[in-house]
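Ops channel
N.P.: pipeline sanity check, posting one input/output pair.
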């Protein structure tokens, strides 16, 4: 039983079905308000200075903040919602909750660490403008890891395997981090690295959330189970493969196969080493070795 299974057994009854619907709806509200030039981030966005001065609601209300605002973004969110539903059907409601809530908490922790790091190095803290954009988009990446051979339609017209879209998106994120690094690298490697951490923190945190989710979802085997698995693989590797003639069975004594006589039956001998196979005429008459 892995960590995710243990958490599910203990807290699964508290899982919220279709949680992504509420997060995407909150993001959509932020997009629409941005279209009408309403300063959402000024009142609800993450600001460590404001939080330290008592505006603790900003620890939660930043989920309403969005980057920019356009109808294209709303269409994109509709696609994300459909992918999120598919992902929830595959992994279950509790695991979906863990992925979303874990992503939000990691974003919050990352922003606090960036504020503390910049305060220590620069003498003043920088608050990252938190949004759920990167975390929501990694749902596509999580779905691609589950069904890499699945097909999506680029621009609703061109079919492409999800595994290739996953690689393209990873390459785009790496390039984006490189751009952030280049912005400050003229002043030195350390400044470039700090710039990348500040502006790319949400990318880094979202990818970390993706990694941790699948890492803790892996099946963990105890020592006895690992030994049994190793023994099974060893036995399977020593099982006779298909013959060059196309036959799947061959008697270790006479060499006959089902190609020679379709009425022959074959069995493995449990007392012989190497999983030897014998025809019906030699199964009980051969010498065990």
């Amino acid at each position: 039983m892995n960590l995710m299974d243990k958490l599910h057994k203990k807290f699964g009854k508290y899982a919220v079905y279709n949680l992504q619907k509420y997060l995407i709806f909150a993001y959509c509200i932020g997009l629409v308000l941005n279209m009408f030039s309403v300063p959402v981030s000024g009142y609800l966005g993450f600001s460590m200075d404001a939080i330290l001065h008592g505006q603790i609601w900003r620890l939660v209300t930043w989920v309403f903040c969005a980057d920019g605002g356009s109808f294209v973004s709303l269409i994109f969110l509709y696609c994300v919602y459909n992918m999120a539903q598919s992902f929830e059907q595959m992994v279950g409601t509790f695991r979906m909750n863990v992925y979303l809530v874990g992503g939000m908490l990691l974003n919050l922790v990352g922003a606090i660490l960036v504020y503390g790091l910049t305060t220590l190095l620069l003498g003043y803290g920088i608050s990252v403008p938190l949004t759920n954009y990167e975390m929501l988009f990694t749902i596509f990446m999580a779905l691609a890891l589950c069904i890499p051979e699945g097909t999506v339609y680029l621009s609703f017209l061109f079919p492409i395997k999800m595994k290739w879209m996953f690689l393209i998106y990873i390459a785009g994120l790496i390039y984006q981090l490189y751009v952030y690094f280049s912005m400050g690298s003229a002043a030195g490697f350390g400044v470039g690295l700090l710039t990348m951490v500040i502006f790319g923190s949400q990318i880094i945190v979202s990818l970390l959330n993706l990694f941790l989710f699948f890492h803790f979802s892996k099946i963990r085997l105890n020592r006895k189970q690992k030994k049994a698995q190793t023994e099974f693989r060893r036995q399977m590797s020593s099982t006779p493969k298909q013959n060059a003639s196309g036959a799947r069975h061959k008697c270790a004594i006479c060499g006959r196969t089902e190609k020679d006589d379709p009425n022959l039956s074959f069995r493995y001998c449990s007392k012989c080493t190497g999983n030897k196979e014998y025809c019906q005429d030699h199964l009980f008459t051969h010498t065990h070795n």
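N.P.: looks fine end to end. The chain is about 60% helix and 5% strand.
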